[in-house]
Write a structure and sequence with these properties.
2 domains, 11-stranded antiparallel beta sheet, alpha+beta, elongated, single chain
């Protein structure tokens, strides 16, 4: 019976330890490039964004995005009166065997007081191969008449213990309790 119980506990620990999920994404990724307005010709009357060629990653990327360099084609989208397509898979690329992507969920727009620049902000879902998809915030700005733009996405995930880690801790505590109980019985 004792051998069966020991084998069962060992198998349970093995199964629990292999069920751990990937970690959430941390850090930010920035892009620079050019775009034109759609639905209007100025920040004040634009309803969408058309990207003019690939955007290039910035050297200021941090966390899980640090050191990534890529030229990425962005998906054109409409932000007024609503986000279209909804949701927008804004970008996706592969670097060093990992796929990176970002899907926009929400968008809010504002125009600078002088009408020269457009700012879009919102939320979305960041993805990297081997990591849990992670909610994040993003900001997109255009400056001047030549529509120079910058895009930045930041993963907002707070570190959360993995279910496998919590299960292993619990199994260890149960094991210690059983060991203590067995030890107490043998002394009595």
């Amino acid at each position: 019976m004792k051998k069966f119980l020991a084998a069962f506990m060992g198998l349970a620990l093995l199964l629990i330890s292999t069920a751990a999920l990937a970690a959430p994404i941390s850090g930010n990724i920035d892009f620079l490039g050019y775009a034109s307005y759609t639905g209007g010709t100025t920040p004040s009357n634009a309803t969408g964004i058309h990207f003019l060629g690939a955007l290039t990653t910035s050297i200021s990327n941090t966390g899980d995005y640090a050191g990534i360099t890529a030229s990425v084609n962005f998906q054109d989208f409409t932000f007024a009166p609503s986000l279209q397509p909804d949701p927008v898979t804004l970008w996706s690329f592969t670097s060093s065997g990992k796929t990176y992507n970002f899907t926009m969920d929400t968008v809010t727009s504002s125009v600078s007081p002088d009408g020269s620049s457009l700012t879009l902000v919102g939320t979305g879902l960041l993805g990297i191969t081997g990591f849990d998809s992670t909610e994040g915030t993003w900001i997109f700005t255009t400056q001047g008449s030549n529509s120079i733009l910058s895009f930045s996405a930041v993963a907002d995930a707070a570190p959360v213990p993995e279910p496998g880690t919590i299960s292993l801790l619990g199994a260890g505590l149960v094991g210690l309790g059983l060991y203590g109980r067995r030890k107490a019985k043998s002394k009595a």
